[in-house]
Amino acid sequence: MKNLILLPVTAITLHLSSCAPTAGPALSDNGQINTVRASNTLLQQGVQQFEAMKKKKRISSNSTYNAQMQRVAARLKQTINMPGARWEFVVFEDPTPNAFALPGGKVGVHTGLFPITKTDGGLAAVLGHEISHVTRNHAGSRKTQATGLTLGGLVLDQIAKRGGASDTSRATLGTLYGTGATIGFALPHSRKAELEADQIGTIYMAKAGYNPNEAVAMWQRFADYNRSKGSGSKPEFLRTHPLDTTRINALRAFLPTAMREYNRL
Ligand SMILES: [Zn+2]
Q1: Which of 175, 192, 261, 264 is spaced 20 to 30 A from 200 at the CA atom?
Q2: Angstrom distance (rounded) from CA 152 to CA 4
Q3: Structural domain tally of the chain?
Q4: Residue 252 domain-assigned?
Q5: What pTM does this model have?
Q6: CA 1 – ligand 1 centroid, Å
């Protein structure tokens, strides 16, 4: 019995240790973003899942939101160099403030997020963030991490404890275990991936001609919204994208780099 447990433990440990976001610097000195291609399997799964979502969820007919989404996405797309990506930006009718990206270049934003993003620059901050998850293949590292999860929540929790994981990340791993088939995509991003997406997101928006300062203002509005709702009703986006002063301060510290790209235009 003990041996039966030990084997998967080893497997999971390997997976967990290999889940750090993508090798190499995200941004080279000359301002180029280093993209990481997802596996063909992951690309296919992303595309398929997005098609399923478009059938299941209501696509918004709000002309203002749709126009803003396509206007901002068109400018951002010109700044992306990712062969093989099939970019698609869809507004879903859903009052919860949420945005997500799937491998292959599929990005969704809920109507409930638009009152928070407000401006084109605000939306560019969110889209830039989501685009970065795709171009840096953050789902690839999460997918690797997820491979071992079907072996059992209890075993996983033990691994997390032994590995010195914080209570928060242990709770996160517990949640992941319950997400079933969509696990590869529903996983919360690691803090490192979030920081990278925040930073690279501002580079995309800067290259597209949106002032990166708008990103800080937008994430601040999102954090304020969250505070106004109180605890217990946290929208999905904030559960998968922990927004705190550390994260916003880190973005603020990165602004000079993003502004350099903005001023290059
Ligand atoms: Zn994110």
Answers
A1: 175
A2: 12
A3: 1
A4: yes
A5: 0.75
A6: 40
* Both tokens assigned to 135: 């171009």
Q: Do 31 and 206 contact (CB within 8 A), yes or no?
A: no
Cα-to-centroid distance, 198 and ligand 1 (Å) = 8
Q: Bridge-partner residues for 228, per DSSP?
A: none
Query: Could you tell me the distance, in angstroms and rounded to a whole number, from the CA of residue 211 to the centre of ligand 1?
Result: 20
**Range 66-89 average pLDDT:** 95
Task: Report yes or no on 119 lying in a domain.
Answer: yes
Percentage above 70 pLDDT, the chain: 67
Catalytic residues: 130
- Of 21-25, 92-96, 124-128, 246-250, where does mean pLDDT reach its minimum? 21-25
List the strands of the sheet with 99-102, edge to edge: 88-92, 106-110, 99-102
Report if residue 61 sits inside a domain. Answer: yes
Residue 4 Cα to ligand 1 middle (Å): 36
Residue range of the domain that includes 138: 36-264
